[in-house]
Amino acid sequence: MMISRRNLLVGASSAAALGLAGAAAAPAFAARLGAIGLQLYTVRDLFAKDPVGTLEAVARIGYREVEFGGGGYDAMDHALLRKTMDRLGLRAPSIHVGYDALRQQFGRTVAMAKTLGADTLIVPYIGEEHRSEQAWQAALANFERFAADLKKDGLGFAYHNHDFEFTAKPGGVSLYDRLLKQTDPKLVKVELDLYWAAFAGEDALAVINRSAGRLYAYHVKDMRADRSMTAVGDGRTDFAALFRAKGSAGVRHFYVENDEAPAPYLPDITTSFKTLRGLRF
Question: Per the confidence metrics, is the pTM higher than 0.85?
């Protein structure tokens, strides 16, 4: 479902063009985020040791959505995870699934997604062996095949970027732009990691607007002046400016993520949650 402007809220920008915090104040009627999500890779060390306790801690902070990724979740008791989420009032709209898992264990992966209550499967990364022009074309064909088969099961498909999709340009065209131009926009969606787009030197606002209609979700993480990763609110990114962008209108989910969150992890994700909860745009 598409989110209304009233409930939306996302954005980020690059070191080059993200717009810094301190831009013009939003008007009194500005939108705010509804449910704020967490990519569980952020707390993967905690989750691997105590998945139930970690979900309880995440819910206590105020998160209402989680995205599974890392921490060994794929080998856990998915029925127990779903039962725990139901008890805590959490949802898992999407899950990260490896490219090879979709190629080799498609049926098992679909069953896992449905048990967890997900509506979308996301490929979060693709290895260097798939980044040549010919290999990427083959991967894009597989993405379309995955998406078409998932649709038959009532599920969606999206791809999550890092920086290399923008910096690798076989044949003079970036992997990211090849994905946009050469896959069916009705089938293959994008989970845009705002930090990594910025880290690649992209104008995040421009990426958002040229990806309009393809964006399923955002990964929201902040960037310091030295381009290192940090909790939302502790960096320079003007998220409000990005969340106001016309291209953000169809984004359904906003997941906090910090690949490098420092132990003990919970203070970091608390800072991000409070920043986004208070954000108006």
Answer: yes
Q: pLDDT of 196-237, one tens digit each?
A: 999 999 999 999 999 999 999 999 999 999 999 999 999 999
* Amino acid 267: pLDDT: 98
- Length of the chain, in residues: 281
H/E element holding 229?
strand 229-230
Distance CA 93, CA 78 (A): 14
List the one residue out of 175, 71, 173 whose CA is nearest residue 130. Answer: 175
CA distance 102 to 105: 6
DSSP state of 26: P
Among all chains, which residue has been given the structure tokens 């831009």?
23
Q: In the predicted model, what is the mean pLDDT of residues 103-110?
A: 97
Question: Using CA atoms, how far apart are residues 10 and 182, in angstroms rounded to an integer?
Answer: 26
- Count Cα neighbours of 231 within 13 Å in the Cβ-side half-sphere: 18
Pairing, β 222-223 against β 229-230:
antiparallel
